[in-house]
Amino acid sequence: MKQKFAILVLFLFLLIGVAGCAPTKVTPTEKVADTAIPAVVETAIPAVVETAMPEGILHTSYWKDVYPDIYESYSIINTHDDGTKHAHSTLNEVLAEMDAPATCLVCKSSDYTQLYKKIGDDIFDMKYSDLVKMVGEVDAWGCYMCHGNDMESPAKAYSPEMLQWLAPDLLAKINPTDTSCGQCHNALDHPFTHGNGELTTTEALTAEKPYGDEFKETTYLDTLWNVASKSQFVPFTVDEETGVLIWSIASHPDIELYLGSTHQDLGVTCADCHMPTLTNAEGETYTSHNVSSSPLKSPEALDYCISCHKDYGATTQKEMIDYTRAHQQEVADADAVLQGAMTKLLELIATATADPNFDQAKLDQARDFYNRAYFYDLMQKAAENPGVKAAHDKAEMLALIDKAKGLTLQGLLLFE
Q: pTM score, two decimals?
């Protein structure tokens, strides 16, 4: 009995095995239908995409928990050597405190593009506070400015509309990564968009072409002066005592100074020095976004600099700092000589202005020499103390100082 039962079980087992191995005519479509994979694909992926990438500009607040290390570095408030504090992450607070013109957002916020599309040229006559009331959250130097909504993409300028209007040829000569910095760090946005507070139009601004028809690679600031000194938009203040023109708002022509520099020729970008790669406590690397800090205060940035400058004697971080300080001091010393000459010229102009018998044509000529010297001196300083930005292009800064010195000496000769 037991033997018969065992034989029966063996027979059934073999029958099932053969049935399972037997070929069946199942089409590819039927196979897909029988699996669970399509159901997972159809339900899970769209849900992830919809959640992760909402429409419109994703503000910095959206990304801070996704990239905590980067956000932490972005939020650092730095104290500079002169005691002033600065952080790109606090630009919103600065603009609110100033109740700045809305056009400050031209370079500082990707939201400006969207706002301009809604408001049009009327935006040129509005305040920052007006825009905040209209749209709520407004990013100043937010993630979208350089990455769009794709944080893994290489940086480039996503909001350079004003710079595109004013200097498309300038942008064409710059690495896309550097245009992300150049969309703010240029000499154009400040004076041409909100300097004198008068209503501006896109058409009028485009017609200015400060780097336009007469443009040559070595004359960006020359062409800027030629246009700006005659512009209805650029903010010049006439000094009552001397009659000279004072460029009444700081400009930072960093991208103009960088163009044609040794660093650009070698392919060194702004981010290479100002946004070094750091390592967190877990050993993971990330890009520092503490761009308000000096590279001289970053060991990682200094090590990057040493990788090239070791050939010039800077083999340690201290030597790299000393090397840079020496170049900064060289520019500062040249600027000090210029300041002495410019001060003397301004005193002579003031005396002549108070003298009704002084030759008016000669006085106007002296003022013109001073005006242009003042402009070139301001540009080489790039909104910093003399020599601070020497690493951007020391040779160009010294050339601008020499140009300003030559103009000043021509002015002084008029009084001999």
A: 0.77
